[in-house]
From TrEMBL:
Signal peptide: none
Protein name, as recorded: Protein CbrA
SUPFAM superfamilies noted in UniProt: FAD/NAD(P)-binding domain
Species annotation: Phytobacter diazotrophicus
Family to which the UniProt record says this protein belongs: Belongs to the CbrA family.
Domain FAD-binding, first and last residues per copy: 4-165
Transmembrane segments: none
Pfam families from the UniProt entry: FAD_binding_3 (PF01494)
Entry-linked NCBIfam families: PRK11445.1
Length: 360
């Protein structure tokens, strides 16, 4: 049975960033459901937009984004639609349009060879014995075991590590549904849709490499029905769907209180969405995945005795920022407040249409 300093479960942006930063200084085991390359194995359903905070993380790390993870086109505004009033506003946003799966594989490729990485792996059991974390996992149909001094859960919304550490913890969850269509719109656009008749969260669309992607976060109980209803309600607003090329779904967390941010205990740590580090107002999580990984890497490389307390303290600014996103979420999903904001026209950039666009 091999022993490691750190075992990381999940190599999304958070886990991959942490593994890269710990390489060389600590022995690291990393388990991931995705295959090493290609489109086999697990693929994260995601609109695929890199926010400014995520871009700043790469600047600090001295990393540049390769062209193979970029998607076409690059859009610098979000068309926000309030279905209750019919008001549409355009707000400037400096997102980078990416191929999410290619981005995840690229993040994994940055992990140095000194890290023991198992791709297409399934973690079956985790327990704590003799002040060590014991892991049982399967790779290529074979079962393996390992131990580690520190355990890190970077395993997203359905985190095994979070359930183990906080079995009674409840956090608001939605089912995220997303469909891909051949793009038939005359001009590409990125949209944010609020419709309190179908969801108390929000929906989105993005044009990407010839496809039109539409998705949203809906209640776990009747998500599919409300997703279909919303598509029908959007057709008068010139949303062009047609036949879906593929449909994706996953669970997404949406924190609603300070207690929803959980960082870990007993030499186990949570990063990214597993810790509840995701924006309640936009469901954007890559920024906070990268930030929390950077913070934890600094803590684990340090000489502090109580590492869990240190990680909790150093993520305070991040948690305060996410608390602000919870307040923003409550404003945007409350119809009368949202209506006042959009009617004010603050931040709105009018779009001038050419005669050709108007006829289309």
């Amino acid at each position: 049975m091999q022993h490691f300093d750190v075992a990381i479960i999940g190599l999304g942006p958070a886990g991959a960033a942490l593994a890269r930063q710990l390489a060389g200084g600590m022995s690291v085991l990393a388990l991931d459901k995705k295959q090493q390359q290609g489109t086999g194995g697990f693929m994260k359903p995601c609109g695929g937009l890199l926010a400014p905070d995520a871009q700043r993380s790469f600047i600090r790390a001295g990393i540049t984004l390769p062209v193979q993870v970029m998607a076409d086109p690059q859009i610098f505004s979000v068309q926000t639609l309030d279905m209750q009033t019919g008001i549409t506003r355009n707000y400037q946003r400096s997102y980078v349009n990416i191929d999410r799966h290619a981005f995840d594989l690229w993040m994994k490729s940055l992990i140095p060879a000194s890290v023991t990485v198992h791709h297409d792996a399934l973690c079956k059991k985790v327990c704590r014995q003799d002040n060590r974390w014991h892991l049982t996992y399967a790779v290529d149909g074979k079962t393996h075991e390992a131990t580690a001094d520190y355990l890190v859960g970077g395993d997203g919304a359905n985190s095994m590590v979070r359930r183990l550490l906080y079995p009674d913890h409840e956090i608001r969850k939605y089912v995220s549904l997303q469909q891909w269509f051949k793009d038939r719109h005359p001009s590409p656009f990125y949209s944010c849709v609020f419709d309190n008749e179908t969801t108390d969260c929000y929906s989105w669309s993005i044009c990407k490499d010839g496809y039109f992607i539409f998705g949203g976060a809906f209640s776990m109980k009747d998500g599919r029905e409300n997703f279909s209803r919303l598509k029908q309600r959007l057709e008068p607003f010139d949303f062009r769907f047609g036949d879906a090329v593929k449909t994706e779904k996953c669970t997404v967390l949406c924190p609603s209180r300070w207690a929803d941010f959980v960082c870990g205990k007993e030499n186990a740590f949570l990063i990214g969405e597993a810790a509840g580090f995701i924006s309640a107002s936009s469901l954007e999580g890559i920024s906070y995945a990268l930030d929390s990984a950077e913070i934890l890497a600094g803590v684990l490389r340090g000489e502090t005795k109580n590492l869990n307390a240190a990680y909790w303290k150093k993520t305070r600014r991040l948690r305060m920022k996410l608390l602000g996103k919870i307040i923003k979420n409550r404003c945007l999903t409350t119809p009368w407040i949202r209506s006042l904001i959009m009617k004010s026209g603050i931040g709105h950039i009018p779009v001038q249409q050419t005669p050709t666009q108007a006829r289309a």
